[in-house]
Amino acid sequence: MAEGTKLNTQVTIAGVTFKNPVMTASGTFGSGMEYGEFVDLNKLGAIVTKGVANVPWPGNPTPRVAETYGGMLNAIGLQNPGIEVFIKRDLEFLKQFDTRVIVNICGKSVEDYVEVVERLSGEAVDMLEINVSCPNVKEGAIAFGQKADALYNITKEIKKKAKQPVIMKLSPNVTDITEMAKAAEAAGADALSMINTITGMKIDIHKRTFALANKTGGMSGPAIKPVAVRMVYQAANAVKIPIIGMGGITNGEDAIEFLLAGATAVSIGAMNFINPYTTEETIQEIEAYMRQYNIEDINDIIGTIK
Fold first, then answer.
1. 96, 167, 237, 261: which sits with the fewest CB atoms below 10 Å from its CB?
2. Which of these, 109, 51, 55, 43, lies nearest to 84 by C-alpha position?
3. DSSP strand E in 195-271: where?
C-alpha cells in the first residue's frame, strides 16, 4: 500500500463514531490529566474515566497494589471523589479535547448507579460504562456481574434512565461469559466491555502475610490476555452488540488480536503504568499493520476469525 493512502481507522459503537479503536481502560488513566504531558489526548479514540460513584469513596486500606509475573494486582477499592467533584473537575478538563468521553460508573446498589446515570444525563459525555464488578450490598456482596439475573436487572434499570448509550463492563469471574453477555444484551445494553480484572492473590513469604491488605485483588496485565481474547471471541459469537476488548494489551499486535476475535475497539490498561505512551504507540502500530497487509478500512478485519 502506498504511503500516502488514506486509512480508515474509524469505528462506530451504538451510533457513536470514534476516530480510531484505541481507548484507555478505566482506573488506569485517571481522566487524562496525569497523562496529558505524555500523550496527545486528541489522538485517542476515547478516554474512559476512572470509576465514579454517587458519593466519595475512600477505597481500601493500603497496601493495595502488588506486582505479579506478567502483571499486577490491585485492590484500590474504586477510590473516587464522587460525582459532584468529578463533573466540576474532570469533565471540565476533558471538554478542551477533541476525543470521545466514556464515564465509568460504580455503585453499591442499583439506586447508587441510577443516581450517577441521571446526574450525567445533561453532561458532555458520549457513553456510560457500567462497572458491574462492584459488590452488591443488598445481595450479600456478590458482584452485580456474577449472576445473570442481577446483571439483567441492573442493566434494565440503568437503560430506563440513561440518556447516553450504555456499555456493560463484564466480570471474567464467572462460569460462562456468554450467559452474562446475553443477559446484558437482553436487558438492552448497547455494548459490552470486557474483561475486567481476574481475582487473584499474592502472599509475601518473608513477612508471611498477604501482599494486599484486602487479601485478594484484581489481576491485570499481559498474563491475562489469552483469557481475555478467548472471552471476547466467545461473547462476540453469542451476541449482536459491539464489544470493547481489553486485558493485557501492550501494543498494536495485541490490539489487532482482539479486533480479529470480534472486538470493535480496545482499551489499554496496565501498560499505561509501565509506558505512558502505549496508547498513542498502539494507534501508530495498528496503522502500520494496515499498511503492511493492504487494509484500507479497519472494520474489514473485525471479527473475521471464526
1. 96
2. 55
3. 198-201, 203-204, 209-210, 216-220, 243-246, 265-268
Coarse DSSP helix, strand, coil percentages of the chain, rounded to the nearest 5 percent? 35, 20, 45
**How many whole angstroms from its chain centre is CA 27?**
9
Give the single-character DSSP code of 77.
-
Nearest-angstrom CA–CA distance, 295 and 274: 30
**pLDDT single digits (tens) 221-263:** 999 999 999 999 999 999 999 999 999 999 999 999 999 999 9
CA distance 60 to 103: 22
CA dist 145 and 91 (Å) reads: 27
Of 158, 176, 189, 302, residue with least CA distance to 235? 176
Alpha-carbon distance 105 to 134, whole Å? 10
In the set 52, 53, 132, 134, the catalytic residue is 134
Distance CA 243, CA 220 (A): 19
**pLDDT at residue 143 in the model:** 86
Which stretches in the chain have pLDDT values below 70? 2-3, 137
Beta-strand relationship, 127-131 and 100-105:
parallel
Q: Which residue reads 481476574 in cell numbers?
A: 198
State the Cα–Cα distance between residues 225 and 268, nearest whole angstrom.
11
The answer to whether 279 and 44 are in contact (CB under 8 A) is: yes
- Structural domains of the chain ordered from first start: 11-300 (3.20.20.70)
Grid cell in block for residue 19: 476516530
134 annotated active-site? yes
Predicted model pTM? 0.96
Which pairing describes strands 127-131 and 166-169: parallel, antiparallel, or unpaired? parallel
Q: Where are the beta strands (DSSP E) in 187-305?
A: 191-194, 198-201, 203-204, 209-210, 216-220, 243-246, 265-268
